């Protein structure tokens, strides 16, 4: 059993808190208010895509902070990894994010979302600052790859839950759920988990502890992101 699996057992309640949030439950049981979905969508939209309309809107920055973060993980893999295939895997993730950005833009127009009327929300800002802090060259590859895995894994586990046989997810939300809930993305998250496990197995105890703290902070930020999507701040 790898370090990640150990943490998943140790922190199973916290992981469930992030992946079985009321927001996700309400998608799954078909009771989500569409305004909440739109809010989530707005919040997930990339910053650069709406610069013309809403230059200072914070709602849109998560994915745009996440893309350079993944690029920073790629850079660290090149410098610090002992396995060449890590770079290919991370590069693949970056390429997928391009499609994600396009999808967000398309969804926004589909749902008639006005990008210029969004309000900056604190939870998103806080999450983005956290992601930005992880881009620093002082953050070790082991810690960064763990964070990358955790950020993706929460979405994968959350949205795949909405696609299970007994779910009642409304047809119009299925496409969104499939973005992160599909098996290929599940496999991708598993490959990130294996990289993280390999790095953690070689890391000294203090670095493993640092990565564990980062994992828990990702869970906390994800919960706050869902809270915000439900109508909080
Ligand atoms: C808030 N967490 C959030 N947004 C995302 N798009 C992901 C994780 C994964 O891509």
Description of the molecule:
- This protein has one domain (3-23, 46-112, 137-229): Heme oxygenase-like (Heme Oxygenase, Chain A), CATH 1.20.910.10.
- It is mainly alpha-helical.
- Mean pLDDT is 87; it is low at 46-60.
- The chain contains 11 helices and no strands.
- The chain is globular, with a radius of gyration of 17 Å.
List keywords for this structure.
Heme Oxygenase, Chain A; binds 4-amino-5-hydroxymethyl-2-methylpyrimidine
Secondary-structure element order, N to C: HHHHHHHHHHH
Q: Give me the secondary-structure category.
A: mainly alpha
* Chemical compounds bound to the protein: 4-amino-5-hydroxymethyl-2-methylpyrimidine
Distance between the termini: 38 Å
| Unreliable spans | 46-60
Mass-distribution shape: globular
Number of helices: 11
Binned, the helix content reads: over 70%
The CATH class, by name, is Mainly Alpha
Report the C-alpha radius of gyration, rounded: 17 Å
CATH topology (level 3) name = Heme Oxygenase, Chain A
CATH architectural designation: Up-down Bundle
Which percent range describes the beta-strand content? under 5%
- Integer average pLDDT: 87
